[in-house]
Structure formats: structure tokens, C-alpha cells
Amino acid sequence: MVFDFAELSLNLAGTAVGTAGTKTLLAALSTGISGTNIAFDKNFIYESTVPALIMQMNADRAELYRMIATGMQSTSTSGQNGYSWAQAVHDLIDYYNAGTLQHAINSIKKNAGSKQVAEEKLTKDLLMPQLATEDDVKMRASITSSLKNITEQNLAKVKTSFGPLSKGLVHLNGCKILGENTEATISVADAKNLLIECIRDVSEEKNKGVTFKDDLTEIKQQFITVGLIPTS
């Protein structure tokens, strides 16, 4: 970019100035920069690209050599060498082709394509934000509303849900904390606040395909077990 900008500037200056001597000087400088630019591109591209292609060729040939060596050691069910002449010729042709520039370029393209597909899958499965459905919102509202049913009389039973929730929803920090309070002496208000934090933490996509519905269903099932949500 620097070379191109300098060359363009000198060409523009050569057009603008009036004296022939200055025009000649600027034209010579422009030609020199242009030649330097071309030489730099050729050398830089060569130094960067050719070794990479050679490395790819060697890697492809090494893989095929491993296949050939494995085939030569194989045996058939009759005890004969299981590596046929036809397969050997085929593998040798592949071994030869693996040492060509075109094959190396194709390998690089194939590897890049595979990595791009993997990256797109990662983005889709793990990084893209998950949108809650209308049913998720309704379930979450129902679960949150059921917290009003916690009383002094059923507090001990409600606490029995803390352990299963902390294990089943260990990927949620708000639910994981419940496991630390299974034996602690807490009030009704404390229990409500702890469970609210657990419900509130169901807000982002989780690993291994876990969704809002999965997390909310886990919480709802535990609430049904301890009697906070009546069975329908």
C-alpha cells in the first residue's frame, strides 16, 4: 500500500509540475518504486507461500506413505499378503499426486473449508444467543409465582429440593449455590431469594444443547415434588 501510494503521488506530482527536468526525475522515481513494489511482492509471496505448499505436500505424502506401509503389512484370511497389486499401483499414483502443487493447494482449501464448517457450527451451537419461546416465558412466570407457597410449615421439605437442583443445574451458578445451603439454617425469605436467583439464572444458552425448557422443566419438576406446584 505504501509503495502504491508513493507511486501514485509521484505520478500526480509529475503531471502537476512544469519543468521537464523535474518531470523526468519524478517519472524515474515512480518507475523505481513500481519496480521495487513488484520485486517485493514476488519475493514476499514466494518466501511465504512456497514453503507452506511444500510442507503441505510433505504432510500429504507422509499420510499416504503410512497407508502404504500399513497395507504392506496386512494379511488376508488365507494368510497371504492382503495388499493387492492393483491397490499398490493405486496408492503409488496417489503418492505421486500428493507431491504436486495442485494437490497441496486443494488440501489447504479442504482443510480451510473443514475449519470454516466447524467454526460455523460452533457459532451456531454455542455462541449464538438463544431466544426464549412464549411457552418458556409462561413456565418461568408460573415457577416464580409458586414461590409464594413457601411457608414455615413446608420450608424443610422445600430445602430437600436444593440438593437435586444444584446437581441437575450445576451449569447455573445461581442454582449451584443451593447445594451449599442444604444443611444451613435459613428463613422462608432466604429460601425464596435463593430459588429466585436459580430461576433468574436461566437466561443464557448452555453447553451440550441444554435449553431454557430443559432448565425450567428441571426446576418445575422439583417444585412439584416438594408441593410448591400442584400436579395437574
List the helices and strands and how they pair.
Blueprint: H1 2-16, H2 20-73, H3 85-97, H4 101-127, H5 134-145, H6 155-159, H7 162-168, H8 173-176, H9 188-200, H10 212-225
Helix pairs in contact: 1-2, 2-3, 2-4, 5-10
List keywords for this structure.
2 domains; 232 residues; single chain; mainly alpha
Structural summary, described in words:
The chain has 232 residues and is mainly α. The protein has two domains: 2-73 and 81-127, no CATH class; 134-225, no CATH class. The chain contains ten helices and no strands. α2 runs antiparallel to α3. The N and C termini lie far apart (71 Å).
How would you summarize this macromolecular structure in one to three sentences?
The protein has 232 residues and is an all-alpha fold. The protein has helices at 2-16, 20-73, 85-97, 101-127, 134-145, 155-159, 162-168, 173-176, 188-200, 212-225.
